[in-house]
Amino acid sequence: MAERRVFQFGERVDGYAIPVLNEREIRAAAGILFVLMFVAIQRAALLGRFTLLKYAATYFLVDILIRVLVSPRYAPSLVLGRLIVRNQVPEYVGAPQKRFAWIIGIVLSGTMVALAAVANTYGPVTGIICLVCLVFLFFEAAFGICLGCKVYPLFNKGKVQHCPGEVCTPQQRQEIQKVSAGQLLVLAGFVALVVLSVPVLGETFRKAPTPLFLPASQSQAQAR
């Protein structure tokens, strides 16, 4: 591996012609940020409390600015992600498309900070931005799919290299990746079960729960 510099986007690894990043730590970092943003957005939407959202959006912006302007190696969420997955074998992905995706993140989070934290406002625009950020983070953390990277080929004439799971390289699906008609039927049946269970079990599930362990005096009172 080549000598590291402070201001360097991606790592030079033997066998790779372009700078690369470790997808495992990126997914870990996305999961961390997703939890932070989800809790903050939930408090804002359900309780009308925006303080945590302002902090979360600001931290998100600072983190992603460090990734793009300095180096992903020093971004706090990626450092924490590296600590979490450091015993796992790295999965190298191309750095150029990740940089493009994170620039999109800077635009989104920067707009969010300007509207929510600086101007101290809320509305449909901030709501849509929050939803888009959550979707981006969830797809990265849960599925290893970089939605911002999907747009990268539209602005880059060169071939995209080293995608997560090598999805940018045409290949035959292995047997374990194929989905049978029986599996699709089970999935459809489960979806139907979920839909039907709402009206059937709704009244039962809406009842307030009772404590599992009650003092003796309360148990006797309820028995009467």
What does this structure look like?
This protein is mostly helical and 224 residues long. It has helices at 23-47, 51-70, 76-85, 95-118, 124-143, 147-155, 181-205, 216-223, and strands at 20-22, 92-94. The protein is globular.
What is the average of the pLDDT values? 87
Strand runs, count: 2
Low-confidence stretches: none
Written as H for each helix and E for each strand, in order along the chain, the element string is: EHHHEHHHHH
Strand order of the largest sheet: 1-2
SS summary, helix count: 8
Tell me the helix content: 55-70%
Largest sheet: 2 strands, antiparallel
The shape, in one word, is: globular
Structural class: mainly alpha
Write a concise keyword list for the protein shown above.
224 residues; mainly alpha
Summarize the structure.
The chain is mainly alpha-helical. The protein has helices spanning 23-47, 51-70, 76-85, 95-118, 124-143, 147-155, 181-205, 216-223; strands at residues 20-22, 92-94.
